[in-house]
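Below is a filled-in request sheet from our internal design queue. Each sheet records the structural input a requester submitted and the sequence that came back. We keep these sheets so that new team members can see what a complete request looks like end to end.

REQUESTER: design group, bay 2
PRIORITY: normal
MODE: inverse folding
CHAIN LENGTH: 234
BACKBONE (tokenized):
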């Protein structure tokens, strides 16, 4: 339970820090300035979009927190046998990290209006994201071929359900990223494209953090942390 609270606090802290950086927590009615200072209002569509993304990420974080809580609670059952972590997950993790870094690169290039570098960064992010999804399917195939099917034990069920849900979020992100990459190639680099690239980068960074936590959970590294938390409160 302590570990779940720490995880939730960490996710809330990340979202809160990001929202504060986007001035989403500001109080415009308390700000002092000329009444005609309307440039701030021109950013309201972007602020609304970022607020919507922040709320969505908060819901996604809460969903994975509940799944992790159920996973940790179910581990103590007599019918629980840990599923082996395929070595391919290391390569998949590297692919997702590379995709996240490529989007951070794209965010830098779109700000500097370097179209060629932006296109290269977006293409790299998209391809490495596809590699992650394909690698996840390959990991599933390796496990099912070895006899670790869905209905064998709760550990298998949790693994396929959680990794599948995370994969669906990545697939949805790839759809948006693909549209952004196409628009960046055929349209002028407008504020809309810059916003889209920035939001894709934020989403990708968040999903990378979630995956790293899940990977640590499946690899068993989180067990030592949970045991330590239990000893501290006992």
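RETURNED SEQUENCE:
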């Amino acid at each position: 339970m302590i570990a779940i609270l720490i995880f939730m606090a960490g996710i809330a802290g990340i979202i809160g820090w990001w929202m504060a950086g986007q001035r989403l927590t500001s109080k415009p009615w308390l700000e002092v300035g000329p009444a005609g200072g309307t440039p701030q209002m021109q950013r309201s569509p972007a602020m609304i979009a970022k607020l919507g993304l922040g709320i969505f990420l908060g819901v996604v974080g809460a969903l994975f927190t509940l799944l992790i809580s159920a996973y940790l609670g179910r581990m103590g059952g007599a019918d629980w046998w840990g599923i082996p972590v395929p070595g391919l997950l290391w390569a998949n993790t590297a692919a997702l990290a590379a995709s996240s870094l490529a989007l951070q690169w794209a965010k830098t290039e779109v700000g500097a209006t370097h179209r060629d570098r932006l296109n290269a960064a977006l293409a790299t992010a998209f391809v490495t994201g596809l590699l992650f999804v394909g690698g996840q399917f390959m990991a599933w195939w390796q496990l099912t071929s070895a006899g670790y099917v869905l209905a064998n034990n709760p550990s298998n069920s949790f693994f396929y359900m959680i990794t599948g849900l995370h994969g669906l979020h990545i697939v949805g992100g790839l759809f948006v990223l693909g549209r952004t990459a196409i628009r960046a190639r055929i349209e002028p680099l407008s504020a809309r494209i810059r916003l889209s690239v920035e939001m894709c980068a934020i989403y990708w960074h968040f999903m990378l953090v979630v995956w790293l936590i899940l990977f640590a959970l499946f690899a068993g590294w989180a067990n030592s942390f949970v045991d330590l938390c239990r000893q501290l409160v006992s």
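SHEET NOTES:
- The radius of gyration is 21 Å.
- The CA atoms of residues 185 and 196 lie 13 Å apart.
FILED BY: M.R.
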